[in-house]
């Protein structure tokens, strides 16, 4: 059986159970318009599928604002502040750690929130995407006070709420192999990981309310990755048991469980 057939079979299982498999699409590292970004927008527009564009406030270019305004399927979310690594040598890259003091980090995030809200208006949603998908729990705790309503990292979420007032909306399938020269992971592996998260949701071994998140990086894509993404979007869009959610819907669907009273690590 082909990998695509495995995906079709999994979606059929959702449909047979009277359920719809929710998916969402997050693309990282945006700050300017580019041919790669336009290729991304073309796929979203061709299939009328929403994409969450994780945008870096400190390097935001005016042409990106114009590009987003022209494509109704794009929602802007916040990708850290400057995508700068503040971790000491020998540690994994991290912008939103506690290396510089929580107050400094949260103040930068609040400033970035204001920049994006002013630039994009209602096209901006207060969802924070930490660079490298890493954030210290001490930074998570005050996010609601800085205007954020959601946090998105990577992997099945351990809890629906990252902190009081902040819903967790993660991605689960990264199409880039970062430790292998940033190459596309390949169609078979990408489908396998997508099916694995959908199966786990259907079985209840992970939070079934958390939409399955596809993570892309338009600046690092080659032709094979673009071709796979276009086919994935087309196939799922055409299947009656699959639905692509925009950011407000992802947050709403993911908030189906009560809030926690203590901070959970991302």
Supply the helix-strand structural class. Answer: alpha/beta
Compute the number of helices.
8
The unreliable regions are 260-266
| CATH architectural category | Alpha-Beta Barrel
Report on the architecture of this protein:
By secondary structure, the chain is of the alpha/beta class. The chain has one domain: TIM Barrel. Helices cover 37% and strands 18% of the residues. The protein contains eight helices and twelve strands. The chain has helices at 3-16, 35-47, 62-69, 102-120, 137-140, 187-203, 223-238, 247-254, and strands at 21-30, 51-55, 74-79, 124-129, 150-151, 161-163, 166-168, 173-174, 176-177, 183-184, 212-216, 242-244. Strands 1, 2, 3, 4, 5, 6, 7, 8, 11 and 12 form a ten-stranded mixed sheet that branches. Strands 9-10 form a two-stranded antiparallel ribbon. Strand 9 and strand 10 (183-184) form a beta hairpin. Helix 1 (3-16) packs parallel to helix 6 and helix 2 runs parallel beside helix 7 (223-238).
Task: List the main descriptive attributes of the protein structure presented here.
single chain, 266 residues, TIM Barrel, ten-stranded mixed sheet, 8 helices, 37% helix
What is this entry, summarized?
Helix content is 37%, strand content 18%. The chain has eight helices and twelve strands. Helix 3 links the parallel strand 2 (51-55) and strand 3.
């Amino acid at each position: 059986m082909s990998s695509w057939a495995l995906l079709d079979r999994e979606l059929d299982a959702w449909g047979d159970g009277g359920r719809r498999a929710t998916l969402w699409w997050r693309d990282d590292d945006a700050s300017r318009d580019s041919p790669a970004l336009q290729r991304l927008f073309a796929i979203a527009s061709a299939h009328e599928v929403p994409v969450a564009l994780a945008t870096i406030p400190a390097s935001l270019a005016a042409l990106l604002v114009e590009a987003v305004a022209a494509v109704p399927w794009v929602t802007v979310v916040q990708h850290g502040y400057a995508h700068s690594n503040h971790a000491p040598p020998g540690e994994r890259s991290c912008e939103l750690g506690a290396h510089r003091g929580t107050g400094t980090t949260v103040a930068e995030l609040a400033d970035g929130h204001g920049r994006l809200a002013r630039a994009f208006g209602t096209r901006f949603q207060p969802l924070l995407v930490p660079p490298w998908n890493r954030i210290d729990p001490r930074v998570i705790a005050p996010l609601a006070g800085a205007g954020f309503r959601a946090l998105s990292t990577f992997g099945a979420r351990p809890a629906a709420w990252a902190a009081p007032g902040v819903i967790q909306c993660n991605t689960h399938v990264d199409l880039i192999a970062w430790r292998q020269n940033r190459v596309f992971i390949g169609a078979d592996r990408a489908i396998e990981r997508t099916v694995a998260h959908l199966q786990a949701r259907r079985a209840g071994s992970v939070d079934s309310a958390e939409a399955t998140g596809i993570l892309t990086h338009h600046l690092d894509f080659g032709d094979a990755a673009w071709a796979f993404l276009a086919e994935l979007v087309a196939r799922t869009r055409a299947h009656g048991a699959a639905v692509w959610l925009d950011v407000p819907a992802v947050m709403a669907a993911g908030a189906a469980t009560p809030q926690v009273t203590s901070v959970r690590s991302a």
